[in-house]
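Thread: Newbie trying to understand structure tokens

Hi all, I'm a second-year student working on a class project, and my supervisor (Dr. K.) asked me to get a predicted structure for one chain before our next meeting. I've only ever worked with sequences, so writing a 3D structure as a token string is new to me. If someone could post the tokens and maybe explain what I'm looking at, I'd be very grateful. Here's the chain:
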Amino acid sequence: MLKLVSDTSGKKNEYEKYGGKAGKKQQKKKKYGAGKEKGGFPKWILFLLVFLLLLGIGFYVVIVGFQVESVKVEGNVHYTQEEIIDMVMTNRLDQNSLYLSLKYKNKEIQNIPFIDTMNVKVLSPHEVQITVYEKALAGYVEYLGSYMYFDKDGTIVEVSDTKTQGIPQVTGIEFDHVILYEPLPVENQKVFQDILSITQLLTKYDIAAEKIYFNESFEMTLYFGNARVRLGSGDNIEEKIMRLKTILPEIEGKSGVLHLENYQQGDENITFQLDKDSVSGN
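---
Reply by user tm_fold:
Sure, no problem. This is what the structure looks like when written as tokens:
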């Protein structure tokens, strides 16, 4: 007898060709594919979350770990400590020592009246030091309602509407004009050497004179309120200032003239001549 045998291999191959159960499972597996497991998050989202977390921690460390808590200011005379800090730390970012160190790295602060330069140094994440280098001012003259400050060479370096504590006014010298960054046009330029010498000695012996007056012979008189101290010429000037240091407490608040024009070291007889109004008042 002839047996009829069906060829199922072709159908099987055809079934598998179009998918079949195994193919469907494979497709489902691919659907869930690389990047996540069934029921989980894609790996790139996990990486992103970790990155944002680390970024947040770093940001917190920079903000909190480098917050400026203490500022030291050195060398300031004309400006207060608070004014200097306001000049350096101009915005909220400047409260961060890391940002401040980058902002002023290899950079000096200039173009501020009465100041040559300022340096900013970060001592620690929470401590900053500001060093101020002020212009060396010998004195000032008053001209057209303003105060003209000059250096040791008599060159006008600043013009201001306010007086600076510790800088004496110089009177008695004649000039007809003033130009910023140029020397005062006085007949005897040697007067500035005398001004420099006297101001350095006053600083050395911690004496604060309000005014230095020069007469026609360029002899000096120092003013302390209503008390005047005549120093005469520049001879023995340091000995005179040393003696003045010991006498000043005795003439404080008085009105008159202390004569040191002819003082020599060791002299004991020194005259303080009271003003007539002061004598009559007593």
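A couple of things are worth pointing out once you decode it. Helices lie at 8-17, 20-32, 43-65, 81-88, 97-103, 191-204, 237-251, 276-281. Residues 65-134 form a domain with the Ubiquitin-like (UB roll) fold (CATH 3.10.20). Feel free to ask follow-ups in this thread.
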